[in-house]
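Case study 2.
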Amino acid sequence: MGNNALQAVLNRAAAGQAAPTIADAPEKPSPVPQKRAMVAKAGQGRVVKTSDAGEASQRFHRPVRDGKRFVGGHFTPELVKQLRMLAAEDDTTIQALLEEALDLLFVKKGKAQLAVGNSRP
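Prediction:
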């Protein structure tokens, strides 16, 4: 049976050796994944500098998203494909289709329409 880390420290202490320090530990990659670079489309936003844990990083800012919140879901690949095909056939965006669908749901449930015309290309 192999020694674990605690046993190794105890063995060093019993032998009169100094316990390892953090500086002695091998460098591990950060458990936090690095932010993916975002590709900007011409004229749709700008790259802004932000601070991320003391390191300079960049993130893409889209002014059209100011004051808005993300709502999402997980769907089957077949549903996603059908939604993309419908957006292409109508020469519109998935965002616009989802807004239209939500407005129809609001009407069905007796609520006010909120999203009509917000994302039409």
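Confidence is low (pLDDT under 50) at residues 35-40.
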